[in-house]
Amino acid sequence: MAKITLSKLRHSYYPTPKQPSDYALKEIDLDWNDGGAYALLGPSGCGKSTLLNIISGLLVPSEGQILFDGKDVTELAPDKRNIAQVFQFPVIYDTMTVYDNLAFPLRNRGRDEETVNKRVMAIAEMLEVTDMLDTKAAGLSPDNKQKISMGRGLVREDVNVVMFDEPLTVIDPHLKWKLRSKLKELHQRIKATMIYVTHDQTEALTFADQVVVMQDGEVVQIGTPVELFERPAHTFVGHFIGSPGMNVLPCTLSDGQAYFGDQLVALEGAIIGEPSGRTEIGIRPEFVTLAASGLAATVSKVSDVGRHTVVECDANGSKISAIIDGAGPEKGSPVFLSFQQNQTRLYVDGWIATQSQEAQS
Amino acid sequence: MKTVNQKAWFFVLPVLVLVAFNALIPMMTVVNYSVQETFGNNVFLWQGLDWFQQLLTEERFYKALGRQFMFTGLILIIEIPLGIAIALAMPRQGIWVPVCLVLMALPMLIPWNVVGAMWNIFTLPDIGLLGYFLNNVLGIQYDMTQDPIAAWITIITMDVWHWTSLVVLLAYAGLVSIPDAYYQAAKIDGASNWSVFRFIQLPKMKPVLTIAILLRFMDSFNIYTEPFVLTGGGPGNSTTLLSIDLVKRALGQFDLGPAAAMSLIYFAITLLVSWLFYTLMTKDDLN
Questions:
Q1: A210-215 vs A37-41, strand pairing mode
Q2: Is B214 in contact with B72 (CB distance < 8 Å)?
Q3: Which of B15, B35, B163, B183 would you call most buried, defined as having the most Cβ atoms within 10 angstroms of its Cβ?
Q4: What is the H or E stretch that residue B50 is in?
Q5: Residue range A2-19, pLDDT digits in tens
Q6: Structure pTM?
Q7: Which of A79, A87, A139 faces B190 most closely, judged by CB atoms?
Q8: Domain boundaries along the sequence of chain A
Q9: Where in the numbering of this chain does the ABC transporter domain appear (chain A) (predicted)?
Q10: CA B172 – CA B104 distance, rounded (Å)
Q11: CA–CA gap between residue A43 and residue A215 (Å, rounded)
Q12: Architecture category of domain A4-230 in CATH
């Protein structure tokens, strides 16, 4: 068990990177607390797998350091770091039995058979695979194979961190939630730090206590699922999390007030600093309501998503989505939109630039 | 009433015709010869199973069969491990990959009788590069026209040179199809290089290696051209493999009946060994 610190980490797959775009990871400073359940969320190609491979030691970063409990492990080989990694596709040793698969990491480290047996039995029981210990691993279903590859990581008693690289990709949908809750349960039992890489927001938000959102090799925001949802620090987070994502509307500023077109939009709090650059208003569809007065708009699309209706409107050449209860208005009909003030924020060059209401009071 | 569409037969017809002409008809001709005696002029005398009985009680046949199994066994023992070793040593990415692949494929592109002639000249003691070097520079007595052991070393070396590439290419194809995650997981699990080979690479190569062994078995068991050009079965009968013995009977002695019987037994042995091997190798996959 250890606290993991990433310090000034940069990585490029080019031997001599010149411009910032040559870097898969651009300057990452991050602390992973001992025993935390983290998710690393971001679109494909944002550098999350690179970051994971650097923590596990499969990649040596171009610059910066990785510390386990303050000890520099940047150059240490994966098997010396006491980490476990579960890959997108289940990795099992086909010719071995399930038991031998689970015992493999321990035997490689020269543990005696008695210890091996004790650990394997404990892990098998935890993963509910005791009844298949004697079968050949090759014949297992994908979800059981993934359990076994997880088990090979957990079987070592001294494991510092367990990392999951989109582990549910090849699992049938109806088994996904089962395996996910198993993971959550495992985390509570063994209390190891877990890092879960995914591009699926549902997976990230249900698994993690803390979600790290990445974009283009940078960490955009770290927070609890609620924080990410309620106060996205960057328009990207607003976009990426939520369905549909946050509305981002171009706006102009005048006398400390934000205007969308010529409509005054009340913000949650005072604007921070002297904004210069691209200014935008961010508001989640959940907090947009149809009202008797407000911003005039035309309904362009109505979709029924079950319990709610998503109404897409056009206003001043921008698209605004609203999530409302019950049936929506007809397509093409004129409506007025109202924004819930404490959820309306200003973003400057993508980053949040309004004070939260708690901060003001 | 049920309508039966007979049109489907027309789609099978071309294949049936092809199989008839390249397998069934020639095969039945051989069966025909194997139970009769002929002196040409289309005169045939019924012999029953005489030729088979004669052949199976004859020392000459068993000696040729023994040499054949020895040849096939030796080249398999050398080519399979060597092929795997070369495949493991080949680069998986970069500009050297196509270079290696082309170099590997070259020996296989050379016509078989050219291979035989090449090695024949190469090993001649008076003018051959290798033969001259061994005899006159290193002082090792080496003459495959006189010494059976030298002849055997030469045909084995020639086959290894000619066909190891096939094993290499198949094994390499098996190796590159292993996802990186396996190697990464093995690293994290603390596996040694030997464990990686034993538990990841070898199992993943098993299907292609099965094919490689099967192909090499069948090809080497039926080999004719190269040893015929190289040694002609000599010195004496020391390198007379089954196929060379067969041709001696059929064309040298014009014993068409015994030769036909031998062909059928030869074919049956090849088929039986291939079937046994394949069944054993794929037995685990079914469960």
A1: parallel
A2: no
A3: B163
A4: helix B50-56
A5: 788 888 888 888 887 777
A6: 0.77
A7: A79
A8: 4-230, 243-360
A9: 4-241
A10: 11
A11: 7
A12: 3-Layer(aba) Sandwich (3.40)
